[in-house]
Prior knowledge:
alpha/beta; 18 strands; 27% strand
Amino acid sequence: ADTTVVIIGAGPAGMSLANFLQRRGVSCVVLEMRDRAYVEGRQRAGVIDHRAGEIFAEFGLDGPVAAGGPVETLLEIRTDGVSRLLDVPALAGGRPSRLVPQQMLVQRLIGTFLDGGGDLRFGALDVTPHDLGGDRPRLTYLDADGGEHELSCDYVAGCDGFHGVSRRSIPEGELTTYSFDHGIGWYTVLADSPAPRYPLMAVSRHGFAAQFARGPRASRFYLQYRPGDDPRQWPDEDTWSELRLRLGDESLPAGAITGREVVEMRSFVAEPMSYGRMFLVGDAAHIITPMGAKGMNLAIADAYVLARAIIDGDGLGEYSATCLRRTWDYQEFSRWYTEMVHDAGDDSAAGPFRRRLALARLDRLFRSPPAAAAFADLMAGTEVSRAS
Length: 388
Ligand code: FAS
């Protein structure tokens, strides 16, 4: 074989896997269809949970990758204007997460991989897997000049995200897929507005809103909106007045809005996460809402399970079951969290009974230490033993 593993996609999943394999002397080639600037510029997730931090540390990557990201501190939850603080790291027994923007993580992972002599090919077009059912899969692709290339390998890692080619290469009937539309839209705004003292989530009748730091002089805001609306058309002053209303902070300073995205909250899982010699990793296999900041962390955790199985030469048969156990655990957590902060806010959608349920769920976090510890444990990222 030309190489042991061909990795399709240079996002968090692909570049975490590439670095883990490289650090243990397993050869791999990464095929990425976009150029480096695009891949390193995509601003999405912002948190490496504690478990992901431990995984990077196991490969000596915590310094190069996670250094500098401020450690998570108190979480402020403002309910109908009343602020309460949760010391999530302490409730998790001293397991803090780190604030590392996704584009910084990917930049650093690409840097360490290339510094280590890694083979990462940008602009790889029309990547096509062949013979996945055999013991010598092949990948064909075109380079930017239209030149044809072929690579044979022992394993293929589909790290190409939700819209990638990997999952689509699995024959009809082999996969069972689960989709769920949460019926909630999030308008996410990047603005030059001073970072909040603590990560802030606000729950009120007006609807959910949140404010997180993105560097000392920038904030990322989230605003719940009813699907079908398009808040990107709102005039900026409407966005700011809506944020002030929902965050319960009339003095919130406006700033230049530098990024606008809408995310319709949906979840997706494909089972199993492997077919023959191909393994689906990260968003190629599952989509989770940003509630609880688990999307990127699931990608890193999947990459870890696959890397360990290939390095140890043992455990590939359990890869899918092990990753699905954590995936469904986090899907449930993310849905629980999404209901808690959204049902409490918006009578029309959820109805008054579910609003009361959500407020009770929220209140339990501040009243019951075991309930708070369970929440903090999931925020820190759970150790999932290999499926037996
Ligand atoms: P990615 O999609 O990141 O990477 C796939 C890579 O494969 C890309 O570089 C792509 O160019 C490449 N590719 C695709 N098709 C290919 C092909 N055919 N051939 C070759 N290459 C191909 N997660 C959180 O944890 N917290 C958040 O707050 C959060 N917010 C989000 C906000 C938005 C708007 C979105 C869209 C997502 C958010 N996520 C968040 C989830 C997000 O971070 C994903 O979980 C994460 O990018 C998953 O990483 P990968 O699985 O590597 O997939």
